[in-house]
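Hi L.,

As promised, Carboxymuconolactone decarboxylase-like domain-containing protein:
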Amino acid sequence: MNQESFEKGLQTRRDVLGADYVDASLKSADAFNMPMQELVTEYCWNEIWNRPGLDRKTRSIINLAMLTALNRPHELKLHVRGAINNGVSKEEISEILLQSAIYCGVPAAIDSFRGAKEVFKEMNI
């Protein structure tokens, strides 16, 4: 693991997902899953999220569509929160999920709408 890449990724991860969530994930990691935390933080959150080609809002939009396509409700909820933190509006999230319904399937999009509503309720928006 490259410590500098990890630290940069950790900052981005905290900025997008919130420090409380990220710190809890790292605190609960053990010898079994810490290597995955390190991998995700260094490569996903630094090497990809910090590339100059796309801004964070655009990356969040892409993630919401992909997570809907993959039907990953836990990750979708996490990234709805990140999308809000990155400037994606509730209305834009609705449009992303509607578009995803057509290209990814209505059942996957319905689950994503359900998850997004839970996050909006938690965030009082």
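Helices lie at 3-17, 19-28, 34-48, 56-70, 73-85, 90-104, 106-122.

Thanks again for sending the construct details.

K.
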